[in-house]
Design a protein that fits this description.
Number of helices: 13
Bound molecules: citrulline
Keywords: ATP-binding, Kinase, Nucleotide-binding, Transferase
Helix content: 25-40%
Organism: Paramecium octaurelia
Shape: globular
Protein name: Arginine kinase
Family: Belongs to the ATP:guanido phosphotransferase family.
Oligomer: single chain
Pfam family, one: ATP-gua_Ptrans
Length: 388
């Protein structure tokens, strides 16, 4: 079904009273209506007690609270339905966001996010699983937002442009050779639409954000394409997205078979940026601050593109691969992102689901151990099909 696209400023009008204040009665009505289709976490945790609490906040914070819920209120297919608008939302609205985050990340007790980039090379080697896995597309990324700036749902056009220019300065000074490609009209590094399309085709650059109603209705995609772009290292193994769901997505792409080498490359890039003087927004409990609460913790997602023709029955049964992957704590996606399809060889992007309560090193270990099991099943099914 074609999804109607609506931007935040328009979408939020339905929840304001005649004076422009947030009408939480209207919000409640909408959540009740949406619950007939799907109950997002944002919907589930919007309780009468939460309404009591939010009404005690300033009028400005009440507006921000509405902003936080807009993605969920404007989409009947949301599973989470909330995005933070400022780093402090995780504290100011903790009476709402804390139980939601605890449920999503299955947090029990007093878990606190720890970091560990001590990831061995020569250990998580894919050819040990199967000698054919010699040249595999391996990726890792971390989401980051910089202290002192609004998160993308709340940034003004001017703030987006200023943030991009601050990053361009950092790119010129941080010691890794590369080039910035801007989508901002009139920017000194602006690229043409054809060049942008080529970068999208190569799975380097992100898609046009205004085609996704979760991103438009929440304000993440506002002022598109201003303040958006991508830095790419000379050897095309390191990339930084500017102005997507998070202010920064720091990415490493390596063709090979040693997962540890991807981490090494990513960590080198990350520390390079930190040394340029940027201070990332961090939460004392939840780890790195991200726009979507699902990425809190390490903000790290690590994946490989693998072929699973037997499990998927030639790409026809994606669900089977997704279900098996889930049993091993992994998520299987199509090649083009979260909701994309797999091809006839069952090519899928496989990554561990956990973000919070695991370190960066554990994410890599989980990917490797999950892949051992997944390829075991793939090989077993291959043998059975041959014998049949
Ligand atoms: C939802 O609530 O379903 C969407 N806002 C997406 C949630 C998954 N998070 C993400 O893609 N970063």
């Amino acid at each position: 079904m074609e999804q109607k696209i609506v931007f935040k400023e328009e979408a939020r009008k339905a929840f304001l009273d005649a004076d422009g204040n947030v009408d939480f009665g209207k919000v409640q009505e909408k959540w009740t209506e949406l619950a007939k289709v799907k109950v997002s976490l944002g919907n589930k945790y919007f309780t009468p007690e939460v309404v009591e609490q939010v009404k005690k906040l300033s009028a400005a914070d009440q507006q921000r609270f509405l902003d936080v819920m807009m993605g969920g209120l404007a989409n009947d297919d949301s599973s989470v339905g909330v995005y933070a608008t400022r780093p402090e939302d995780y504290d100011v609205f903790s009476f709402y966001l804390q139980p939601l985050i605890r449920e999503y990340h299955k947090i029990e007790g007093e878990t606190k996010q720890e970091h560990d980039w001590n990831i061995p090379v020569d250990e998580y080697v894919l050819t040990k699983i199967d000698p054919k896995l010699e040249k595999v597309s391996m990726r890792a990324r971390v989401a980051r937002n910089v202290k002192g700036w609004n998160l993308p749902p709340l940034m003004s056009k001017e703030e987006r442009i200023n943030f991009e220019n601050k990053m361009v300065q950092a790119f010129e000074n941080f010691g890794i050779k590369g080039k910035y490609h801007s989508l901002t009209p009139g920017h000194k590094d602006q690229i043409t639409q054809e060049q942008a399309d080529e970068l999208i085709k190569r799975h380097f650059l992100f898609n046009d954000m205004t085609t996704d109603n979760h991103l438009t209705s929440s304000g993440v995609a506002s002022d598109w394409p201003f303040g958006r772009g991508i830095w790419i290292s000379e050897d095309e193994t390191k990339m930084i997205w500017v102005g997507e769901e998070d202010q920064l997505r720091i990415i490493s792409i390596v063709q090979g078979n040693d997962l540890g080498k991807v981490d090494q490359s990513l960590h080198q890039l990350l520390t390079g940026i930190e040394k340029s003087g940027l201070e990332f927004a961090e939460h004392p409990v939840y780890g790195v601050i991200t726009t979507c609460p699902t990425n809190m913790g390490t903000g790290k997602r690590q994946s490989i593109l693998g072929k699973f023709p037997n499990i998927t029955n030639g790409g026809k049964d994606e669900k089977k691969l997704k279900d098996i992957a889930r049993q091993f704590g992994l998520q299987a996606r199509g090649m083009g992102g979260e909701h994309s399809a797999m091809d006839h060889e069952g090519t899928a992007d496989i990554s561990p689901s956990a973000r919070f309560g695991v370190t960066e090193a554990v994410v890599t270990k989980r990917l490797y151990e999950g892949l051992i099991k997944l390829y075991e099943i793939e090989a077993q099914l291959g043998k059975e099909q041959q014998q049949a």
